[in-house]
Write a structure and sequence with these properties.
The chain has strands at about 1-5, 10-15, 20-30, 35-45, 50-55, 60, 65-75, 80-85, 90-95, 110-115, 120-125, 130-135, 150-155, 160-165, 170-175, 180-185. The strands form three sheets. Strands 1-6-2-3-4-5 form a six-stranded antiparallel sheet, with no helix packed on it. The chain contains no helices and 16 strands. By secondary structure, the protein is mainly beta. A hairpin with a 5-residue loop joins strand 8 (about 80-85) and strand 9 (about 90-95). The chain folds into three domains: about 1-60, SH3 type barrels (Roll), CATH 2.30.30; about 65-125, Nucleic acid-binding proteins (OB fold (Dihydrolipoamide Acetyltransferase, E2P)); about 130-185, Nucleic acid-binding proteins (OB fold (Dihydrolipoamide Acetyltransferase, E2P), Beta Barrel), CATH 2.40.50.
């Protein structure tokens, strides 16, 4: 058990029968009245971000979370299958626990957050940026590049993203996994 003086960014706590990660916090000591800690917390099960204020000295219950590297293998009716890179143990995870599963490719490296005491997977995080190949896109029309025009493109993972007109089929592009936005053409 801990109290509000132990709050820091990245700390995971058991709060209202759910697991929350501290996204940001601010300790406030007003001119009169008691001090408090204003926090932004993110639910590890639903992904919702809440603003919550803890009174100074409020008891919190930290939870130990472990981040382990896994490799994505395949998807079937029982879920997405991942293999631990160190122990070669396999685990099946449901789609709801995966951030942006449309960008997963066989062999991709991901981080899986585990509740350390219960050995329960909580969330699957893809890398912040991925480099993927364009499998299909319409050719760009010459002379239509004066503005930031975009066109749809199909990626090798099956996801569809918007890319600039100069991107062609077979090109490799860098995308931001959180938003699915095109960043640049990969070298």
């Amino acid at each position: 058990m801990a109290d509000t003086s132990d709050i820091r960014n990245g700390l995971t706590i058991d709060f209202n029968n759910d697991l929350y990660s501290i996204v940001e916090f601010q300790h406030v000591k007003p001119g009169k009245g008691n001090a408090f800690v204003r926090t932004k917390i993110k639910s590890l099960t639903t992904g919702r971000v809440l603003d919550f204020t803890f009174h100074s000295g409020h008891k919190i219950f930290p939870v130990r979370i472990e981040r382990r590297q896994f490799q994505y293998l395949f998807k079937d009716v029982s879920g997405y299958h991942f293999m631990n890179n160190e122990t070669y143990e396999q685990v099946a995870i449901q789609e709801e626990l995966i951030d942006h599963p449309q960008f997963l490719l066989e062999g991709s490296q991901v981080d899986i957050l585990f509740h350390a005491e219960k050995e329960m997977p909580l969330n699957v995080e893809l890398p912040q940026h991925l480099i993927l190949k364009i499998t299909y896109t319409e050719p760009g029309v010459k002379g239509n590049t004066a503005t930031n025009a975009t066109k749809p493109a199909q990626l090798e993972s099956g996801a569809e993203v918007r890319v600039p007109l100069f991107i062609n089929e077979g090109d490799r592009i860098k995308i931001e996994t959180a938003t699915g936005n095109y960043i640049e053409r990969a070298k």
